[in-house]
Amino acid sequence: MNGALLVQTWRWQAVKLAIVALCAVGWGWLLPLFYAQFSDSIRTLAAQNPLFQQLSNFGSGSLLTLPGTVTLGTEHPIAIALLGVFAIGMGAVAVAGERQRGTLEVLLARPIPRRGLVMTLTVALFGLIAVVIAAMLAGMTLGAATQGVFDQLNVSRLPLVWVNGFLLWAAFGTFAIAASVSFDRSGPAIGLSLAYLMVNYFLEILGTFVPGARWAQEYSLFHHFQPTEILTGSADPLDFVLLLAVAVIPVVYALVVFPRRDLPAPG
User: Fold this and answer.
1) Which residues does 191 contact at the CB level (< 8 Å), separation at least 6?
2) How far apart are CA 247 and CA 178, in angstroms?
3) Of 70, 94, 152, 164, which alpha carbon lies 20 to 30 A from 118's?
4) CA torsion through residues 245, 69, 56, 46, sign
């Protein structure tokens, strides 16, 4: 790993990180606000209408409890878009973008081995993802405190929620990096990474709204991100192990494949 490149990568992403982190704080703050304002009405409607109760669940989250609302918010398309800016947007172009611009050869001409480049970009990506998730959880904590529902949020377990969320998005990020080292253009790498993300999301949502397809959720990485279970003290350690394994495999692939690739001149 190259320390100078790592710091420079973070500097290049500093403005974008600040904007995304601020949006993540705002989104996190809105979730307890929504719960505090509408939870009683939602529970009443759910008790009167079983169909509404089913619709109040989304992915692994639920509008009926604050931990469930936290889970729902972290699986909402807005949260996915915020984290996808780095996990997909940066990860997929990390190498393929340099290749497409014709600057990869200049970068590799420095005393940076290919494996060192992959590890540096991976660590840089991990750092950005970690900050965005922390910002979102900070916003949730602030929102719970300002809306009078702080007692319903087990703050002591939030670090474990952070770890779970980090592993989830690290898995998507390392897949994007593996795609990036496999192509000479950004387009295919971004497309493949987005497809991987959307398939996982589709399987989670399919199992939510189609009772006969609940088995599909087990094949979705999103289903192994469980803030509700963590905040209520019933976390499954296998979720962490599975996400860690899925995050590590693409890194191993990139470390093996990229040093062996011939890099033709850019068109």
Assistant:
1) none
2) 11
3) 164
4) positive
| Phi-psi map region of 59: left, alpha, beta (phi>0 left; psi -120 to 50 alpha) | left
Strands (E), the chain: 57-58, 61-62
Adjacent-strand bridge partners of 58: 61
| Domain limits, the chain | 3-260
Q: Are 223 and 207 in contact (CB under 8 A)?
A: yes
The Cα 28–Cα 57 span in angstroms is 18
Residue carrying the six token digits 């209408």: 49
- Each of the 267 residues of the chain gets a pLDDT tens digit; together they read 777 778 888 888 899 999 999 999 999 998 888 777 766 666 565 555 554 455 445 556 666 677 878 888 888 888 899 999 888 988 888 888 877 777 776 666 667 788 888 899 999 999 999 999 999 999 999 988 888 888 888 888 899 999 999 999 999 999 999 999 988 888 899 999 999 999 999 988 887 767 777 788 888 999 888 888 888 888 889 999 999 999 999 999 999 988 776 665 555
pTM of the model: 0.87
Q: What whole-number distance in Å separates Cα of residue 250 and Cα of residue 125?
A: 14
Q: How far is CA 38 from the centre of its chain?
A: 27
Q: Report which of 200, 247, 238, 174 is spatially closest to residue 60, judged by C-alpha positions.
A: 200
Both tokens of 112, joined, read: 């940076």
Positive or negative, the Cα torsion across 122, 90, 134, 209?
negative
SS3 62: strand
Among 167, 145, 138, smallest CA distance to 24 is for 138
Structure tokens at 43: 């529970």
